[in-house]
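note to self: the first set is below, dont mix up w the second
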Amino acid sequence: MSYDEGLAERLREVLDSQEGVNEKKMFGGLAFIVRGHMCCGVSGDDLMLRVGPDQHDDALAQPHTRAMDFTGRPMKGFVYVGQEGLASDEQLEDWVGRGLNFVRSLPPK
């Protein structure tokens, strides 16, 4: 599966000031790993985001989101955000901030 290079570049710009960020092809797209934990990425045209189990329901209650489900079973703590929810840089920064908040709560790998 290919992924939206434009969205990947926008994510690189948002994550540029973060330490310990690596890119890895996974989930049929591109993932951004922060401190050893998957934080966010691009799958097709969507942002895939790790928000953690406690924020999962709140994230799904937001417009343009859906559960991350590519195996037939939704992954608790992960969501997809559609392009409509990422139109502005502020929207993208807000979503990425949610992912960063979660991975910062985990011990570094």
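second set (the one i keep forgetting abt)
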Amino acid sequence: MIRLRHFGPAMTPPKVAEAFRAALGAALGLLACDALLWLLAPATTHGLFLLIAPFGASAFLIFVLPNSPLAQPWSVVIGNGIAGGAALGCLTLIHDPLVAAPFAVACAILGMALTRAFHPPAGAVALATVIAAQSAGFPGWSFLLSPIIAGSAALVAAGILWNRATGRSYPFRQPPPPSTHGTADPLPQRRLLPPPAAPAHLLHRL
């Protein structure tokens, strides 16, 4: 049975200091991203807005949830890059943007699955690329390098500096699961396996 309270917040309230840390980091990260894109942009485009909207979602993951697998450098840079490339490829084959947009997202998801680079904002990168391509001054395939890949890399670099400076671990790798027996011994199903050096030792004796 659905109750009214089911529609309320599902998360516990964060600490104010942690929320401020993440918010300030996201702002500084996007500023760093903006600065890099400004340096890479031609002089004729310096008066234009250089950030793309999905970078806001990427910044959220990097600075608010730095331990998430979706926020790790490989996921951010490769995921966004694949999404941009998928969108540009779809636009080459499908000239109607209304049709190209959904196929661009679908191809981005497949590409991220094959490369283990799932990054939710990349779905928005695919859409943003299709939308940007409708403007008269769209740069074509160079859009993949800047702003998509360069901006993603700048956000990751800012995330590494800020998270480590404020006591958070980023990049973050999940530790191996502990033994169910509370010891450092291998799991029972792996105790009968030879040590890693055994096959090489046997081959050397032959």
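remember for set 2: The chain has seven helices and no strands.
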